[in-house]
Amino acid sequence: MDQDQILGRISAMVEEERALREAVSSGRIDSATEQERLGDLERALDQCWDLLRQRRAKTEFGENPDEAQVRPASQVEGYES
User: What tens digit of pLDDT does each residue of 56-70 get?
Assistant: First the structure.
């Protein structure tokens, strides 16, 4: 996945987060469903941001950004920028 694909995926997930919050506030889904899906999205977003940071770091140091790998959610969860 290249940088533009990663950014596109991040944008799509952020939009999905917004839609979930709207769905729960309008009563279309319950808060338990929202929280479960938001948790999944947050983990996937953490992985995407980590992959993007890896790619940028590899580029900055003259390495091949395509060698960056998605790390397990358990490893990247809660990273702070």
Answer: 999 999 999 999 999
CA 33 to chain centre: 19
Structural domains in the chain (count)? 1
Q: Is 68 exposed, middle or buried (0-12, 13-18, 19+ CB in 10 A)?
A: buried
* C-alpha distance from residue 44 to each of 50, 64, 74, 76 (Å): 10, 23, 11, 10
Predicted model pTM: 0.84
Whether 76 is covered by a domain: the verdict is no
How far apart (Å, rounded) are the C-alpha atoms in residues 56 and 47?
Answer: 14
